[in-house]
Amino acid sequence: MADAKELISRLALEKKIPVEEIPKIDLYIDQVIQLFDTGFSEMKRTPEDKILTKTMINNYAKGKLFYPVTNKKYSRNHVMLISLIYQMKSALSINDVKKVLAGINEKAAQKEIDLSEFYDSYLEIQRFNDEIFKRNVEQQVERAEAESADFGNDREEIDKVLLIASLVHMSNLYRRAAETLVDEMAEGKEA
Questions:
Q1: Integer Cα distance of 1 and 161 in angstroms
Q2: Where are the extended beta strands (E) located within 4-85?
């Protein structure tokens, strides 16, 4: 079975784009892509994977997932919103991401909210979640090993399959909880 600590270390949980690493000047799309490639390079599954592409960012813009850019340049707020989109799109549909970020987008566009403070809070919650995740993965590894104890020669494969199934199940539970909250947000805006 994979060692829990070794598995966790390969996930590069500490990789984030903190506010202080986002340039204070507006960026062109290629610079935004480079910032994300640098910030999240260790999170790629394979070296060929792309973190962000021009097409992705243009689709987010066309889908109004963030407020319009000025002169083809992306502000710090845009970079923070793109980071949120990047994180959310792996679990939620693009339409759900749009619903979640609609109010934040509007407030950021109108300068009613300091997006840096919001984004810092988001990153702090990520760090908190990382610690919970580490403990949970260790527990899941232990549980999979306990459940596979009677499988003899096939134990290593059974361990991994049980762990993968368990992690996917937890992922689905979290995704469903997030979708329930998205639906509540959408219902609240319609009322």
A1: 10
A2: none
Strands (E), the chain: none
56: phi then psi, degrees, rounded to nearest 5: -60, -50
pLDDT of residue 119: 95
pLDDT of residue 45: 85
* Paired residues of 70 in beta bridges: 73
- Rounded to two decimals, the pTM is 0.88
Mean pLDDT by 10 residues, the chain (191 residues): 77 86 95 92 86 94 92 94 94 95 91 90 95 94 89 85 94 96 85 51
One-letter amino acid of 164: I
CA dihedral 49→51→54→57, nearest 10 degrees, is 140
| 3-class DSSP assignment, residue 73 | strand
**Phi-psi category of 23—alpha, beta or left, where left has phi over 0 and alpha has psi -120 to 50?**
beta
Buried b / exposed e over 79-91, threshold 16 CB at 10 Å, is bbbbbbbbebeee
What are the phi and psi torsion angles at 165 (to 5°)?
-60, -40
At residue 24, what is the residue type? K
Query: Taking a C-beta distance cutoff of 8 angstroms, is the pair 188, 100 a contact?
Result: no
